[in-house]
Predict the structure.
Amino acid sequence: MSAPVFRRVLLKLSGEALMGEQNFGIDPAVTTQLAREIHEIHHLGVQTAVVIGGGNLFRGLAASARGMDRATADYMGMLATVINALALQDALEHAMVPTRVATAIEMRAVAEPFIRRRAVRHMEKGRVVVFAAGTGNPYFTTDTAAALRAMEMKADVILKGTKVDGVYTADPMLDPDATKYDEISYLKVLELGLKVMDATAISLCMDNKLPIVVFNMTLAGNLRRVITGEPVGTTVRA
């Protein structure tokens, strides 16, 4: 098996990734598959952190558009990410991967509070750390939380797991003529308004020269392929 080209990574997953074929909630078969994928790279010795969204349970932005106070809606969305993080932790521990959930909002009965040095130490000891509750602040997405946590953990790369195999000129589900980028710059992503991550997250990565690899997480073995340097997905860099 090829050696990993990254020492420490942050994997960003959307909450929708946990739904599988359902319209809502968490599909245990999906969390089990994700745990297998993460177990593979953990077995290679890669220090791994995960940031997960909450869109499968609650979307703060959508609720605020229907009249709910934006800050309240965002806090509810953060709580949804904690539920997802606990589900992923359970699946990882069933796969014999030691895991810690660290939340930006304190709830000590179910997870530990996010403390940067403690999270780094967990990773150094071979534990997967799942970051929940976003940044702990309303108006910031889990994409921004992923960029922020990747910086704090000194990750080598952000791995954005999606349902498509990279970044396209347009939505490949809607436009059959859309073409895939193998590599693209941060500036081009911002200029073209491509939906890789939100603009705040892209800007953070650009300022700190942190590459992003966008790839299809639903394809078994893809995470390991990215980690071992195979040309999978699209790389966003300077």
Remarks:
- Residues 70-94 form the longest helix (25 residues).
